[in-house]
Amino acid sequence: MSHTGMHGGYRTDGLWVTAGVSFGLVVVGSGLALVGMMEFDERCMQGVTQGPGRLLRVRDQAFPPATICEFDGGEVSSIGGRAVLGAPLWASLLIMITCLLVALIAECFEPRLGSDLVVPMSRAEKLRRTGTAFFVTGSVFLMFYALVGWRLFAGPSSVCSAGADWGQNPPRTLTYSFFPPQATCQYTSGLTEQLNPDWMASLATELAVPVLPAGIGFVLAWRRWSVERRATRQDTAPETSDTPGRDDTTRLRSGGSSRWRR
Predict the structure, then answer these.
(1) Do strands 182-186 and 192-194 pair parallel, antiparallel, or not at all (unpaired)?
(2) What is d(CA 153, CA 131) in angstroms, rounded to the nearest whole number?
(3) Which are the contacts of 133, defined by CB distance < 8 A and separation ≥ 6?
(4) CA distance 76 to 49
(5) What is the side-by-side order of every strand in the sheet holding 74-77?
(6) Who's near 54: CB < 8 A, 6+ residues apart?
(7) Helix 211-236 with 83-106: angle, nearest 10 deg
(8) Could you tell me how far CA 208 lies from the centroid of its own chain?
(9) Which residue has the higher pLDDT, 39 or 256?
(10) pLDDT, tens digit, for every residue of 38-61?
(11) Taking Cα atoms as reference points, which of 211, 212, 210, 216 lies closest to residue 101?
């Protein structure tokens, strides 16, 4: 009896398309927000951008990317911190995360055939689908993390000075962490600064979240495919019989006759 055949898998094409469109909107919107952050803090410092009262401090917002100038009577932010761009960015991000996680979690299950939400597929096809999802999510995470946190691997005392020639006065590394990839650097003037912008450090950590369900789905698909493959090999293996064959019977008879004649 053959163990190969078609098995059930959820229809996730619509989820992947929606996640892709939402991701594109997040990328475009974040790009506009980053452009709006350029020199916004300097305009606040110079009084070009006025607010209610005296300027207290300037800070950067992780997501949506924005520069926020805090005054006595309120805040003034770049375009990323305003509802006209911030609300669509948050909505696109939530839709993307929801569709992505639901699609990845759905790949971990093997429902029964017969539902409109289920499509027949082989073990090999399931393995290719989950392998592709795991490869893509893992590659995106590793590439972005390497871009943001490569200096962290230079060592605790060299994180802030890695990648530049500081001479005799390199900045000191006060604190550092791998998740999120961040460090606090202190310069000879006494000024302290973060190694990476907050939004980059946060995004590098958040990109690791989809890798977990994608990896679980891939491991489950590989295990089911391996079990089916071993079962198929056992079914197709040649059967051995304990009953003597025709040649063996002939030899036995011949030997017995010879001994009888003697």
Answers:
(1) antiparallel
(2) 29
(3) 103, 104, 107, 214, 217, 218
(4) 8
(5) 55-61, 66-71, 74-77
(6) 71, 72
(7) 20
(8) 5
(9) 39
(10) 888 888 887 787 778 787 888 888
(11) 210
